[in-house]
Design a protein that fits this description.
TIM Barrel; 8 helices; 28% helix; 20% strand
Length: 265
Amino acid sequence: MKFAILFAAALALSACGGPRLATSDRTSTRPAGAVIAPSFGDRKPHPWDGRAPSAYAVHGTDTSRYQTPVDWVSARANGVNFTFIKATEGADDSDPMFREHWNAARDAGVATGAYHFWYHCANGRAQAQNFIRRVPRATGALPPVLDLEWTPFSPTCTRRPPQAELLAEAQVFIDTVARHYGQMPLVYVSPDIFASHELWRLRGVEFWVRSVAGHPSKVYPGTRWTFWQYSSTGQIPGKTGDADLNAFAGSAADWRDWLARRALK
């Protein structure tokens, strides 16, 4: 898949064997609100029915210890407008690459936020405190994110708590983190846990939805979403191997307005 901006150059790109790498001044940065059209591809694109990701103006990625190293200047120059970086997991674990990714992405002008991976065997307050200890309250940062997924392959916790318990503990995390950072978190969800535990009942949050085989309007009917993770096989200059690809729900102008409202002060 190539995005709309690349349609005219698709044949040339194919001849070169991969996505175009935009040139950039290695010492400069671009403001986080300045939208750069995506200039990257997808190793295994889905045949979208209806509105495709390429119809959206603002694209980005998410990042953890498994994406290293990242040339954030190149990624930014090629259309990574935002990234969410894994910071913590559970009540005491942290991503050892968080600080490196966080600092380098912000320096490159990428709108940068942090996410916490939920652990179903710890309470919400302890997990919120772990996140707060590790993630700075930095001006201009994106709102914090709570990543809620099932963990069937976890070596230490595969439990699936009842709906009432999960909603209550997740809300404690959300409210605790919101008080500290001055912004309500986003909540990342996959279709199975969102449906089975009615995560739309969480109060005051915006959703970042995973949907790699259908538009969110079909996978999460009636749900308002802010970010859409549409692929895990993206090919981004500056990132080695497969990368997650995400789209923002609105236009470039909507993105700037959203940042003005939701970036940390």
